[in-house]
Specification:
Layout: H1 12-16, E1 29-30, E2 38-40, E3 43-49, E4 53-54, E5 59-68, E6 73-80, E7 87-91, E8 96-98, E9 107-111, E10 114-120, E11 122-131, E12 138-151, E13 155-168, H2 183-189, E14 194-195, E15 201-206, E16 210-216, E17 225-228, E18 241-245, E19 248-254, E20 265-273, E21 276-286, H3 308-322, H4 329-341, H5 347-377, H6 391-408, H7 431-445, H8 453-460, H9 465-488, H10 501-509, H11 511-528, H12 535-558, H13 563-581, E22 592-593, H14 596-604, E23 609-614, H15 619-629, H16 632-640, E24 644-649, H17 655-663, E25 671-675, E26 684-686, H18 692-702
Parallel strand pairs: 1-13, 4-13, 14-21, 15-21, 22-24, 23-24
Antiparallel strand pairs: 2-3, 3-5, 5-11, 6-10, 7-12, 8-11, 9-10, 12-13, 15-16, 16-19, 17-20, 18-19, 20-21, 23-25, 25-26
Length: 705
């Protein structure tokens, strides 16, 4: 990922192989090359073997065993969004060769918005030794230099000098495959991903946003994860969607945003459980695969089977129930009140209004379905209420519902019809009004999902276009049915109370669910912006929009039926709506590369200095940077206090950065240091895990010194 890791050809362990110790800016190497475990920072390392001896011409399984402290982890061969795998360099006696270090089945290790692949608790990395037939009997010693990166909130490189003593015993072939695989190495050998069985089959389809892996194993699989060997192939943190099949599993994996063109093949590991995984290499066929109705995210229950007819029935009943949802009920209720008041009209005209209202709903649903199908054809996955993924749509919808709720509450009068839009739509008798009431009913229904709708919609979105249209048409007909029946049988309105003062009170009460819906939409709006740490600011902008709409409503209520007040209200409402829709420019400040000269110059000029000691392989660093250091509040304080920002990138070894870390008694990243403007003032070292309050409090304290 471009914004997470930009490692050069020289990896982290070039710097880890160099010296690093807090007192002397060097990394301490643990172990003297002898046998037995050695203790390092946050883990214990040891070389072990399945047998104490090896025969000339034989083989022996040995391994590197790392036992980690609680919540610390090391990495798989592809570390994910950050990190580096362990490495081992052997010094072996003549006649002994070592194969590659093998990696057992990894696990997903989430931290904030990022995802790593690796191991916690204990892990063993098997290595196969092979002896030549001319190897002389007697004791031998194996020497190994090991490098690793161990992480929790902070990432610390480690280095050990390990050893293993063996005996070469003529004719002793018990050290071959016949040796029982016991202990950590034996367990790890059982966890090495295997080749696909001959009777299994794997195909991979690559779309614009996803890879779809279809694995046939002969039995239904309910869990699966894919781990690529190559970086920047998949969006590591994105959930992987599981679609169990009768003879295997289909796995939908999101493509990396940095993968601009499809690769010719994918090489990785498909994990079916903690003890079963397969190493796969398969060509990628371009194409789009629709999600199956039984698809689920890991840990979610699979949906029950749904047929086309049952989906249509469920959608119709769900549409009827949708009328009772707080988003929609005020529309039906007020339309019903209008029907009561107009019950004296000709029955044919009332029926026409019901048909036009139904047509408005159906046309709106068809437009939504067309948009969904277009998105699906382009490879984008979208579902019911996909409009709610758009901050602009949310802001406009929330503002519209809030403004209409003000009218229902009695601040101003738009009439009993919800179709008062632009004069011509304000007449409840007009067919245009009935049509746009249906449109509005559909719009306000999109935040709601009634019982029975979920299964029907999930089924419809995975079917051909004709079935999708049929299911959504049934949903629209269900939504329109209550009012349509009343318009065809106006006598049924006799069960409703006669018109009177109660209608005004009840109308005002219907404003409550609309205000509640507007509040909920404001919460959704803030969550859509939560990823950039400015969700609260965006919610505040929407609340200012609500205030402007309230002022516009006051103007309409103060001077009713006045074109001047209408124009003033329109201008105030437009200005209010512009507040949440305005997207401010990125104010992210520029960080200069760290150097002692840059630090000295800034302090000599009387500027406070903030140093971010970071690395591309440090997951905590990336989370702190995204969530805290790039937040609007922290950026504002940096700019206001004229703080010089220096980034000490420790992705590759830098002795100057290492020395500076040691000077503040730190041995890893992330590390954050504030130097006050006073030249002789001491450094303020912040915690590894940052919050905005921590940084803002430290800045307030340090810039005043």
């Amino acid at each position: 990922m471009n914004n997470v890791r930009k490692l050069s050809a020289f990896l982290l362990f070039v710097c880890a192989s160099l010296l690093f110790k807090p007192a002397h800016a060097q990394l301490q190497v643990v172990g003297d090359g002898g046998p037995g475990p050695v203790k390092a920072q946050h883990l214990t390392a040891e070389l072990v073997s399945l047998s104490p001896s090896i025969a000339p011409g034989g083989i022996l399984q040995v391994g590197l065993v790392l036992t980690l402290e609680e919540h610390w982890h090391v990495y798989w061969i592809n570390a994910g969004d950050s990190g580096e795998p362990p490495k081992i360099t052997w010094t072996l006696p003549e006649g002994i060769t070592a194969g590659p270090m093998l990696f057992p089945i990894p696990s997903r290790l989430p931290l904030g918005p990022l995802m790593d692949f690796g191991y916690e608790d204990e892990v063993a990395f098997p290595v196969q030794l092979t002896a030549t037939s001319t190897l002389k009997p007697g004791p031998i010693h194996l020497d190994a230099k090991v490098n690793w990166l161990v992480c929790r909130e902070v990432c610390i490189p480690g280095k050990a000098h390990l050893g293993l003593n063996l005996n070469v015993v003529p004719g002793d072939l018990t050290s071959s495959a016949a040796v029982q695989p016991v202990g950590a190495v034996g367990e790890a050998l059982g966890l090495i991903p295997k080749p696909l069985p001959a009777d299994a089959k794997l195909t991979i389809t690559g779309g614009k946003t996803d890879f779809v892996l279809n694995l046939v194993t002969g039995g239904r699989e309910t869990n699966a994860e894919f781990y690529p060997f190559d970086q920047d192939q998949i969006a590591n943190a994105a959930p992987q969607q599981i679609e169990p099949t009768s003879d295997g599993v289909r796995l939908r994996v999101r493509r990396s945003e940095d993968l601009k063109t499809l690769p010719a093949q994918l090489h990785g590991v498909v994990k079916l459980s903690d003890t079963e995984a397969y190493e796969i290499t398969a060509p990628v066929t371009p194409g789009e695969v629709a999600a199956a109705p039984g698809s689920k995210l890991p840990g979610a229950p699979a949906t029950s089977s749904v047929t086309t007819l049952s989906a249509i029935g469920l959608a119709f009943v769900g549409g009827i129930i949708l009328n009772l949802m707080p988003c929609v009920f005020p529309v039906l209720f007020l339309k019903g009140l209008a029907l009561v008041q107009s019950s004296g009209e000709e029955r044919s005209r009332l029926r026409s209004h019901g048909i036009v209202y139904t047509l408005g709903i159906l046309v709106s649903f068809w437009i939504i379905v067309a948009a969904l199908l277009i998105l699906r054809a382009t490879g984008t996955q979208a579902g019911w209420g996909f409009q709610l993924q758009s901050p602009t749509f949310i802001a406009v919808l929330a503002a519209g519902l809030f403004f209409f709720a003000l009218s229902l509450a009695g601040q101003f009068d738009l009439g009993l019809s919800l179709t008062s839009v632009g004069g011509g739509l304000a007449q409840k008798q007009g067919y245009t009004g009935s049509f746009f009431t249906g449109v509005l009913a559909t719009i306000v229904a999109t935040p709601c999902t009634a019982p029975l709708m979920g299964a029907a919609i999930g089924f419809a979105l995975a079917q051909p276009a004709g079935v999708t249209f049929a299911v959504f048409t049934a949903l629209g007909l269900g939504l329109a049915t209550p009012y349509l029946l009343l318009s065809f049988q106006p006598a049924w309105t006799r069960i409703l109370p006669r018109p009177g003062a109660w209608m005004e009170i009840l109308k005002q009460l219907t404003a409550v669910p609309l205000f509640g819906t507007a509040i909920w939409l404001a919460w959704v709006y803030g969550n859509l912006h939560s990823g950039n740490s400015q969700g609260v600011d965006h919610v505040a902008r929407l609340l200012w929009c609500f205030l402007a709409l309230a002022i516009a409503g006051w103007a309409l209520g103060k001077w009713p039926a006045s074109w001047k007040s209408a124009i003033a209200a329109l201008l105030i409402a437009a200005l209010g709506l512009a507040i949440p829709l305005y997207q401010p420019k990125d104010t992210t400040l520029v960080w200069a590369p760290y150097s002692q000269q840059a630090l000295d110059q800034a302090r000599a000029a009387g500027h406070p200095v903030f140093i971010d000691f970071t690395a591309a392989w440090c997951l905590s660093c990336q989370v702190n940077e995204r969530v805290v250091l790039k937040s609007a509040e922290v950026q504002h304080e940096f700019n206001k206090n004229k703080v010089t920002l220096l980034k000490a990138d420790w992705t590759q070894y830098d002795p100057e950065i290492t020395k500076q870390l040691a000077s503040v008694n730190r041995s890893g990243v992330p590390t954050y240091v504030i130097y006050p403007a006073m030249k002789n003032s001491s450094a303020d070292v912040l915690p590894e895990l940052l919050t905005k309050d921590i940084v803002l409090t430290a800045l307030e304290k340090d810039v005043s010194r």
